[in-house]
Write a structure and sequence with these properties.
alpha/beta; Spore Coat Polysaccharide Biosynthesis Protein SpsA, Chain A; 16 helices; 7 strands
Length: 469
């Protein structure tokens, strides 16, 4: 009909199309031009802006790391460092008193340090009496019989989860007499020289609060999923932690494989259980008090990666939900703080907003939803730089930290896109403080468990619900 637009539908059209597919097609034509197209155009603009933020952040990290390598800016050159030596007059009192938090036991007891200047504190908040008595306490008694100064501390509840256990551990009288505290999760196995390489940074630099070591994965080659995890975590340690330390800026405590100055920990307010990222919470508060952090990329502590998707998904929920929730709780506190404008911008914009919020949302919304949606709406165009060049460069920068896995790049992209759905969901849960905001599920690590199975005994197959699949 002359004068009638292509999207105008007459009553007789509805009668002619009585099948379901026809009805859906008519509804689509009704909402496509006036609703879908404008919304999609707005989404494209917003997503392109977020993609540019992420791209600038990645390029900055890459350029900064390149300069760090060219200028050879190692922590030993930036800070005072020399081996701690015996003092004939003072004896072992010349060594700082070190408290070692340990959620497992073996490697901590094997660390080299004067025996009267170190306390191994095993924190156990397991509610399973078999684990408590038969495993943990017996192991502690075995090491104590060898002359190790080891203390077994058990809670009958899990209030505050890890933060609660750490807070309770600091309240014992023997802990209050220590200068530093080294923290290791259950699956972390430090080398015997760990304290010799970290304590001098704290002892000789009174403005340093934290020395963080790098993680080394003993089961990264166990399956394709652990290889993908290694690629993602290598970027974090190779770029984010290295650049944050070398530029005297800020980087987050990883919750394990690090040594804290107890005075700095107390000044910052101690351990708080208001979010599931008590490590990041403490690091931000300490940084706002002016303390510096040192990252040692050449000091590696062995640990395991989650080797089941269910365990990894729960871990990523906590790692995505917690930072978003902490950002919401601390944004005004950071803005009102008296630290420099540069530090405020770095912590709020770079550390929190771009890395912990934008990175997850743009990966899912833009690359998994908006770009595929434009296939059905050709009126909405995405510039080639936004759809091809920027994502490609971001991917290459992320992957260059793990050269041995470059041939798995396509699988890594698919894996990260799948995980972006879970991370985006967790991010919004954290920002909105929804139902699972404080959920803490202990991450299952299966590497050593599988190795320790008796010969000839097949590993138990886990049953998965439909939802888990």
């Amino acid at each position: 009909m002359e004068g009638v637009s292509s999207t105008t539908l007459l009553p007789e059209d509805w009668a002619a199309r009585d099948d379901v597919a026809g009805q859906i097609g008519l509804v689509w034509e009704l909402v496509r031009t006036p609703v879908i197209v404008p919304l999609l155009k707005v989404a494209v603009v917003v997503c392109l802006a977020m993609a540019l933020m992420l791209f600038v952040e990645r390029v900055y990290m890459g350029v900064a790391l390149l300069l760090i390598k060219l200028l050879r800016r190692r922590p030993e050159r930036q800070y005072k460092w020399e081996p701690i030596r015996d003092d004939v007059e003072l004896g072992n009192t010349a060594y700082p008193m070190v408290l070692v938090y340990k959620f497992s036991i073996g490697a901590a007891c094997g660390m080299s340090w004067p025996s009267d200047r170190i306390i191994i504190q095993v924190l156990d908040d397991s509610t399973d009496p078999v684990i408590q008595v038969s495993l943990v306490e017996v192991e502690c008694q075995r090491w104590a019989s060898k002359g190790i100064n080891i203390r077994y501390e058990n809670r009958d509840n899990r209030n505050g989860y890890k933060a609660g256990a750490l807070k309770d551990g600091m309240e014992h009288d023997y802990a209050k007499g220590c200068d530093y505290v080294a923290i290791f999760d259950a699956d972390f196995r430090p080398e015997p020289d760990f304290l010799w390489r970290t304590i001098p940074f704290l002892a000789l630099n009174p403005d340093v609060a934290l020395v963080q070591a790098r993680w080394k994965y003993v089961n990264s080659g166990e399956c394709l999923m652990t290889r993908m995890q290694e690629m993602s975590l290598d970027y974090h340690f190779n770029f984010e932690q290295e650049v944050g330390s070398s530029t005297y800026a800020f980087f987050g405590f990883n919750g394990t494989a690090g040594v804290w100055r107890i005075a700095a920990l107390n000044e910052a307010g101690g351990w708080k259980d208001r979010t599931t990222v008590e490590d990041m919470d403490l690091a931000v508060r300490a940084s706002l008090h002016g303390w510096k952090f040192v990252y040692l990329g050449n000091l590696k502590v062995k640990n395991e990666l989650p080797s089941t998707f269910k365990a990894y998904r729960y871990q990523q929920h906590r790692w995505s939900c917690g930072p978003a929730n902490l950002f919401k709780k601390m944004v005004m506190e950071i803005m009102k703080n008296k630290v420099s404008l540069w530090k405020k911008v770095h912590v709020l914009y770079s550390f929190f907003f771009v890395r912990k919020i934008v990175a997850h949302i743009v990966t899912f919304v833009f690359y998994c939803v908006v770009i595929p949606a434009t296939v059905f709406v050709p009126e909405v165009e995405i510039p080639k730089w936004g759809a091809v060049y920027i994502p490609s460069l971001i991917t290459l920068i992320n992957a260059v930290g793990t050269p041995r896995s470059l041939h798995l790049l396509v699988f890594w992209i698919l894996f990260e896109n799948v995980m972006s759905l879970h991370r985006t969901k967790a991010t919004f849960i954290g920002l909105l403080e929804a139902g699972r905001v404080n959920e803490w599920v202990v991450t299952e690590k299966l590497g050593d468990a599988l190795k320790s199975k008796p010969a000839g005994k097949a590993p138990k197959k886990h049953r998965f619900r439909i939802g888990d699949r």
